[in-house]
Amino acid sequence: MDARQDGQATVELIGALPALLLAGYVAFQVLAAGYALTLADGAAEAGALALASGRPASQAARDALPGWAADEVDVSVRGGRVTVRLRPPALSAAIAERLTVTGSAAARPR
Questions:
Q1: How does DSSP classify residue 88?
Q2: To 10 degrees, the CA torsion angle through 39, 40, 43, 49?
């Protein structure tokens, strides 16, 4: 083995590490956004069902979300439509804002 090649694998790993970390972070953000979309759809449906049964839709939608989402959600009710906007968890508020998802559901209010 040539003395110039000693440590080459370490140098290559250090060079590739930022790309690996970035790929992992992007994968996490995509999964977090998908999970947030599923939660927003479920919360909107819960709100619409509450609206159809004469209960407060906004509170029902908020109750359908996990605790971490309490500060990351906006619920609006217009007519018979419940819309839930949810920001997924992210390291940066700017990224979370760009990945905000929306779920909506409709019901006939009593």
A1: P
A2: -130
Distance between CA 13 and CA 72 in Å, rounded? 37
- Round to whole Å and give the CA distance between 60 and 46: 6
**The whole model's pTM is what?**
0.83
What backbone torsions phi and psi does residue 58 show, to the nearest 5 degrees? -60, -45
pLDDT digits (tens, 9 = 90+) for 53-104: 999 999 999 999 999 998 999 999 998 999 999 999 998 889 999 999 999 9
Number of Cβ within a 10 Å radius of residue 38:
13
What lies within 8 Å, CB to CB, of 104 at 6+ separation is 44, 81, 82, 83, 84
- Residue 8: enclosing H or E segment and its boundaries? helix 8-52
